[in-house]
Structure formats: C-alpha cells, structure tokens
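Page header: ASSEMBLY MODEL / two components / 1024 residues total.
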Amino acid sequence: MAGQTGSAALTMNAPAADWVIEAEGLGRRYGEHTAVAGLDLKIRRGEVFGLLGSDGAGKTTTLQMLAAILDPSEGRATVLGYASVREAAQITARIGYMSQIFSLYGRLTVDENLDFFAALHRVPEAARAERKARLLAFAHLERHRDRLARFLSGGMQKKLALCCAMIHAPPLLILDEPTTGVDPVSWREFWNILYQALTEGTTIVVSTPYMDEAERCTRVALLHDGRLIACDVPGRLRAGLPGKMYELVAHPQRRALAALQRALPQAAPYVFGERLHLRLPEGGGDAGEWRAALAREHVQLETVRPIAPSLEDVFVALLPSAAAAPPVAAEVAAGAAGPAIEVQELSMRFGKFTAVDGVSFAVQRGEIFGFLGPNGSGKTTTIKMLCGLLVPSAGRATVAGVELGADPRALRSRIGYMSQRFSLYEDMSVGENLDFFAGVYQVPRAVLSARRAEALALAGLAGQEQRLVRALSGGLKQRLALACAVLHEPQVLFLDEPTAGVDPLSRRRFWELIGTLAERGVSVLVTTHYMDEAEHCHTLGLLYNGRLIALGSPRELRAGMRAGEMLELECDQPIQALALFRNEPGVQASLFGDCLHLLVDDAASARPHLLARLEKAGHRVRRIETVPFGIEDVFITFIQMEQARLDTRAARS
Amino acid sequence: MPRYGRLAALMRKELIQFLRSRAMLALILYLYTGEVIMCTFAMSFDVRNLPTAVVDLARSAESRALVQDFANSGYFKITHTASTDAEVAALLDRGVVLAAVVIPPEFPRQLAQGAPTSVQLLLDGSNANAASVAQGYAQRIVQNFALSRAPPSFMAGPPAAELRPRVWYNSELDYRHFMVLSMMSLAGMMVGMITAAAGIVREKESGTVEQLLVTPVSPGEMIAAKMLPPLLFCLLALFPSLLVAAVFGVPLRGNVALFTLFSAVFLLSSMSIGILVAAVADTLQQALLISFLVLFPVLFLSGTIVPLESMPLGLQYLAEASPLRHYMEAVLGLFLKGVGIAVLWPRLAAMLAIGAVLLALSVWGFRRRLV
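Prediction written out in full:
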C-alpha cells in the first residue's frame, strides 16, 4: 500500500495517530456463509476511500463492522482510536453513517429531520442553525426546507440523508452505496458535498458498485466474495495492470470480436459500443499475430490506439475467471428490417402523478435501445406498458406487430421479459426452470432439446442442470434468466436493469450475450443506471421525470452537445486544489481519482488562468490536457437543459 | 391440446416447489395432527376438579356425606373449608376457588323430617360456560343425595313421571368426539387458506409473478395450477388426522370416499378464500394478517365454539355462507351419525356454490390486482 510516487497527501509514513481506521484480519460469518474474511485495511485521515464490489461482495458487512454496529466474528478494528467492539458507543457517537436503505423520517420535513439528528448528536443550539444553513445550501435543498422527506425525489432524499449524517461535523463519514440509482445531477451535487467535507479534513469511506464512482476516490479497495483482492490509488492500480490496453474500430465488429477471442483469448477482448477493447502483453508483442488473424477473417481494421485502462479493466483482470464465455457467433442471419417497437405519445398517470409523459420512439429489428434515467424517471413503467402489464393512460404503441391492448396473448408469446428482480424460481434447479418456461411458452417438442442445450450454453451452465438456482452467483442467475426469457425466440426482448449489482466481468459477458441476440435480429429494449453501459447501445433515450429528453446514438448525443470542454489536471494534493476552484465562476471542478476534472467553456482561454491560480497557491501541476466527455457528462448537460426549461416554465406560470 | 401442455408445465412447477417447501409440508401435517390433539385436550368444555370451598354450618353426618359426594364426583375438588360467608366471598374474589357449597345448619333436621331443604351453591360466573356446567353437576349430586336419603315412605310408590334421557350418536356425551372432528375441520380451513395465499404471495415477493404475467399464461390457469398440489397433499394429510380421531375413540361410522369428496370440495373453497386474500396482499405478512381477520368470523360462524342455534337469527343466516359450517355438519353427520349423501347433499351443494363464487371472485381479483 505504501506509495512512493503518490502526491504528498498520500504519503504513507504518517504518524500512527493519523490512521482513522485500522483493521486486522477482520471477518464476519453468518452461519455457514462467510460474508467477509481476513480483511486488512488502513485508512488515513483526510482520505476518500472507496470500497468497490458487486452485490454480495461484502461491502455492507465491512462498513457495518467499521461503523461499530456489527461485531466481527474474527479480527479486530480500531476506528478513531477506539476498539470497535469494546468501545462501540464511542465510535457510533462520533461518526456519520448512511445506510443503503432509506434512513430518513418520511413524515418529518427536511428541517425536522435535520433538527432530529442534530438533537440526537447534541449539536449545540448556536452551531446548529449555521451548520444546517450551510449543508442545505450545498445540497441545494434550502427551497425545500418545509417539504416532507417522503415527497422529495430520490436524489434529494440521498442528499438530505447525507446532510443528516454530517450535521454533527463527524471526523469520519461511512456511506453505504449512497448514490445507487441517483440521477447524474444529484449525483454530482452529492459529491460536491463530499468534496466540501474533504477540504475540511473529514475522512470518507464510501462503498459503490460503480467503477466511475470509485475513480473519484483517493484509494480504492476491490472486494470480491468477501475478500480484498486489491487496494491502492486508482492510478497505481491502473498502472499495475500487466500489458497495455488498446482500442480498435473494426468492421464487421462481431466477426472481429470472434476472431480475436479465438486468436487471443488471454487479451479478453470485449465490445465497448462502436469500439473493441483488448489488453495486449507489454510492447504489443504479437501485434502482427492478431492483425493477421483479423486479416484472415477479412475484417477491416479502421483504427488502433492505446488507451488508459479503466478501473473496470483492472477489476476484470483481477477476478478469478468464471465459467468460460460462450464463443461469439461470427456470422448471423440478417433479420428483416423494420420497426419492432413503435411508440407514440405514450403516457401513464397514477392519480395526479404522471409517471410517463408523452413518450415517442421506435426500435428497429436487431437494435439495442437503451433507456437511461435515474430511479423513478419512468423507465420501468414504460416497459411495463409495452409488455401489457400496465394499461397506458394515453397514447398508442405497436410491439412485435401487435397493437397494444389488442391481443395480449399474442403479444406475450412474441416478447421476452426479464425484470430487475431475479425472475427465476430459486427453489428449482436450472433444468427445471428451463423446462418450466419452455412449457409455459409452448416451445414445440421437436426443437425443445436443441433450444434447451443452446440456452444452457448461453448461460454457461452446460452440465449443471441439477444445480439449484439459489446456489448460483448473481451473474450466472442473470444469464440463466436471460436464457429463459429467450427460450421461445421472442422478436422483442425487454430487460429491466438486468445488470444491477453484478460484478463487472459478468456484466461484460451479459452485454456480449445481448449483442449476440441483437445480431440474430432480436430487438432489445434495456434499462440501466450504469452510465458506462450506455456505450453498448445503438440508440439511447434519456428519461427524466417521465419525459424523453434526449434520443440518439451515443455518438450523435456527444456530437450534439455544446457544453464546453473538459480539462484533466494532475497535481500534488488534488483535494486542496479542488477547494481552490470550488467557488470559481465558469469552472466546474470534480475529483477524478488522483486527478481533477475541470469543466470550462473554452479550454484554450481557461488554461493559463487556471495554471496561474494553481501556481499562486503553491501547487505543482504535472499534467493538464483536454479529455473527451464521458456519456455521463452528456446526460448531465441534457438534464440541466431540461431543468432550465422546467424552471422557466414554472417562473412564467 | 396446446393449452393442456401449458397447464401441465405450470402444475409440474407448482408440484416441485410445493414438495420442496419442507416447512409448509410440516405445517400442514402439524395442523392436521398435533394441533388437533392439542386443541382437543385443551379446549375441552367439560369441568373437572373445579377448586371448591365448603362451608359446613350443619356439621353433621349427613352434611359430611354430602361433601363427600361432591368430592367423589370428580367434578369438584374441595380445596378449602370456611366457616363464614365473608371467608367464602374472599376466596371467590381472589379466584382461589371457583365454587362454594354452603350447607345450612338446619340441613340435617329438615332432611330427617322430610321437609324441603336447600344447599347453597356459589359459583364464579366469570367463566359462564364452566359455571353452568358445574351447576348441572351440582344439581345432579344433590338430587341423587336427596333421593338416597329420602324417607322410605317417599320411595314407596313409583314416581308420577320420570325423565329418561337417552343421547343419540354420542352416547357417552364425550365432548372430545365433537372437538376432534371440529378441530380437523378447522385445520382444513387454515391449511387451505394459508397454502393458497402463500403460494401466490411468495411469487409476488420474489418478483416472479411479473415474469409469469408476461407469458401467455392466463389467471385461470395460474390459479388452477396453484390449487392442485396443496389440494392433493391436504387430502393425503387427512388420513393421519383420521387416525388421531380413531385414537380418541370417534366411531368413524361413515364412508371414507364420501368424506374425501366432501373434504376436497371444502378445501377448494377454503383455498379460494386464500387466493382472494393473496390478490389483496403483497407480502406473506400481510396475507397472514388478513387470513386471521377472515378466519375468526368463519370460525365463530361455524358452530365449533358456540352452538349456532343460540346466535341471533341474522348471524345464523350469515353462517350459511361459511364453508366451515357446512363441512362441520357433514363431518359430524358422516362420522357420528353415519348418514350418507342422501342426507348430506345440501351441504355439498352449499360448499360447491360458496367455492364457485369465491373462485370466480379470486380469478377476477387476480386479474385486477396483480400488477
């Protein structure tokens, strides 16, 4: 863990008093099940420490042990100098803890919630008003002080929960997946509050399933199956990845992927939107070899460029490789063209609340259409209407050639659906689940055994038909659920947050499956709140407050954005540098691992000014350059535009 | 034909899941056996060993003999003796005794003279049922005592009229026969409701119900598949229950095939209630809570605890809507009276009608409430 190249804030020879958290051999068992084992962690004062892992990796258990609300079954932890078991009360009185579940009082107002937590921690009357005002200002919640907490949007609730956890100015904040399902704007505001706390010297430990969120931490621990598989500064984790990452654009992409998987399985090639990513040994040694392999398959190689590996690449490389991915079929029969889904002005109202507001779009045959949006934006409601589970209040739609509401049975036999909750019977075996869905969909006996075998291969579960679904990992369950949903060869496939909470390797494989299905002519409508997954879709629709506020391919959306430029800045002490730009007009600064990301109107004119500011404050700048926008930046811009439109409309009326 | 295949797939799945849920199987067996045994013992409305105080103001051989008769009856247990009314009142107030026998000082004299005499019986009426039963026993004891001590002249001629009670069907008037059969019926009611409700609500909780709804499965098919496995298992579980009844000495006069038919129809109607409950509830907890709300009126209107004949007329009519009431009548008729379908067909018809209405309601409710 010790750093020699890191910035000053990260040097490791800090005095013992500077360790906010020290854990040795920490572990927790629940009966037979080991949730966490042999965890060694040291977290320094002033760090923002990320705990990264999929569902069931042990993140919540770890945080609960560190927050002294769960006793470990082995090992020990010292938090803020107190033993986590013997002096638990000392710890819980001092830290701020935010659990994954809704932890506010829904029937109290924003103000009352804050007052309650302040009273709980005996914040002196004098300090209380000042702290409250400051936190509410940061969270942009001043206008909502008198609203009941349960009527706030998901993002606002998370921000309020954070304010409540910070009302007593705790030296240590422990946050359990605080941003899951939050819209990108709220997410950014949430992190701004955290940055503010960081500049005041607070230590933050945050768990997250999102790679891009982990990139914002000064140090990251990767958890998998209850064990720590890596722990370091994101930059060093990336640098430690053996080999080099390359990005290529090749046509036809699917054939290129198949050829690469065959020629270079250890390079772990995968599709990233319109591009392919692969990891080659140092020096690109056998560059000739894979180029030849592509040439043999008549693949046209457009561009090849080295790229910085993402944290996800690191994670995937460190994961014990699961069951081999099924080989990608190189050739696919081209299906008939034409729209598989056509939606016109579809609306859904529940009482006074409009969940979906006049949404129109079309999905072509073989297209992957991605619905992005925060929780509660109307994604699931739209899918439910298109599946015939909900009757729309207004508008019309045609799915797989069936007019909505005309013939539900015909519609249902032509669509496949996989919901965000696992849609398998956990107390039945793999084979029994497949047989059940085959029976329900009346898969003809003649093709049943072939389809069944294909589905097992698709799920990577061949020869494991007897296993109970309950015993499968999250990733395998998801693949099996998908295999069950396509057993009857539907024309349209609806996937509602299919990858939530699954480890990154499984997520990649899952998207490969979706790609394969799309190439067979299946139209896929998928929702996700992982922004990076947007790259896998041909077309994206961004839903916000029930309205479709952006529609187009990822490339189109990026190109259509006129929102300035992004500068990446590498310097010593990024947290202090961040504080410098906090109140700077025209600059939106955010921490990005050990770098800063600065959103400015014009990079060329802003750069000298920014450099001067840094120099004056005594910062040493190692690197500053313009970087492309992430898809998340795109969506934030669209959401801000929509918010501005709503605000002006509200102001007018 | 194609519809058959789908229904078969659904039923196979339900059967697999049902047989795999060990806890549910154990619960059904327990309700049909353990619970029946326990309730039969516990819910006996008979009175035995009632703690009793005696105030013997006569202090004579006769009064002692009467007290002895009380003690030997097995119904009363003399735990205290008192000498004043105030003492007795205190004992009754504290609940130390539930009955008190006061023998007046003139008792032996009047008895010897053949004059009418009286013995005072004080009863704690807070448990009205026990009190009235105890009153009956006490009356019998005193009457017998009086008859045996009557002067010979009194016994000379035959009495002008004599009541000769003869009880049919349950000749020893053993309350347990009735209790064991009604507990069996009640078990069927609970099992039917809970299994059906749990089967559906579990799918709601795990989210698989949405998956089912986007398949071409119809609500009718789904409900039919949900009902079959619990029905089969519950019918099987009836037999250990009959064994329990036999151990309690229930004569089991009727036809077992007929009993199975009645039970099947009854279980279907109780499962329909369960499905109706599941259409409203989203979680198992809610379902169980609603089940209890439904169970109590059904239980009270069945005649198990209180005879229906003593209820207001309106409630008696309402009781006709309770499938448990008809099943109870049928089971008592089958096993204690030994009557057959010729007599019991109205009960069967009533249960079929109730079941059909409930089933139609639950299919309709299912359609509306599922998403």
